[in-house]
Design a protein that fits this description.
Bound molecules: zinc ion
Number of helices: 10
CATH topology of the largest domain: Aminopeptidase
Radius of gyration: 24 Å
Order of helices and strands: HHEEEEEEEHEHEEEHEEHEHHHEEEH
Distance between the termini: 28 Å
Number of domains: 2
Shape: globular
Number of strands: 17
Strand order of the largest sheet: 1-2-8-3-9-15-10
CATH superfamily of the largest domain: Zn peptidases
Strand content: 15-25%
Amino acid sequence: MKVQDRFLKYVAFDTQSDSASTTTPSTLKQLKLAEYLVSEMKELGIQDAHVDEFGIVYGNIPSNVDKECADIGFIAHMDTAEDMSGKNVNPSIIKNYDGSRIVLNKELAISMGVEEFESLRNKIGEDLIVTDGTTLLGADDKAGIAEILTMAEIILKENRPHGNIRIAFTPDEEVGRGPDHFDVEKFHADFAYTVDGGEVDSVDYENFNAADANIQIQGLSIHPGSAKGKMINALHVAMEFHSMLPVNQNPAYTEGYEGFNHLCDLHGECEHAVMSYIIRNHDEQLFEKQKEDFRRIADYLNQKYPKDTIRLEIKDSYANMRSIIEKDMRVVDLVKKSMKDIGIHPSSHAIRGGTDGARLTYQGLPCPNLGTGGYNFHGKYEYASIQEMEKSVELLLKIVENNLS
Ligand SMILES: [Zn+2]
């Protein structure tokens, strides 16, 4: 089956995850796609295809060569983002894109073009899969699933030589729970790749170090008419706290390797206020420094105001995989060589976020991220290039092949 036909089948499944849910997976509808994938994998001849109690799909293709080589894993996620509905996705194909504005929905006057989406400029002449403007597309990450299984189909049908290939599809990546129940030991790979990025020429192995800061502020409420010298307005203290953080470390002012403190939530009243921040930096030392800023401000305000006015809790959530990947770059070098072999000029970008691969890397499975040929994720302007999806399949095949040499 062609990679785009496979992809179009998968996007028909609504697999939106839900951060408010306490079930595993967060939405049961993800299991429908999981079961469908298992039956497809069995049909293809992938061994031991099953979905486990946490909704994770596993399968493997045992080695057919006599040679010692690495066990390689390929991972993609089944869920789609909460930001926009993934129900009743109604994709259409723009053949041989000519660079003009793409009308996604005439009635609703929704269109997109190179003016606002620079990536489209490089897509002239390619065939694009787009939405009807009312949902996201789901290329994030059903393009990854389609590419992995198309690679598997070609290997099995043509009986190409290969080492052990491990495959997994996870639920709930978009709500940060993808690797929660991932069984690294059972997966049994020396390293793996998440196929979950944009441009196919990119192999990414740097992401943010990440922490959450929660700040509880205890004020003192009293009738404003008789408040002199007594009232402590927790909301004022919150603003004071925020004003003491470095002004430039704001997501709206940062890019590339620049870190930030992002105030995600502030609520309260005179008596009590709560602030939530996320803290992000690629550099470990700068990241620690940012966390130290929070502690120093809390200490200062606890001296200025009654002790325990500020209660600060900082929790690390994930770390930059670079420090681990760098110790053994073979996992990246294999991709770069494979890219060159199929005429792609390799690049690497520092991801301004996290990936499932980052957490898996820290769980003992080195796991850089590869592109899928999908763009503008998490919204109605999401699209995928069929030629890039095909290129991704070619790259995965080449990685498997080069792993033998
Ligand atoms: Zn994704």
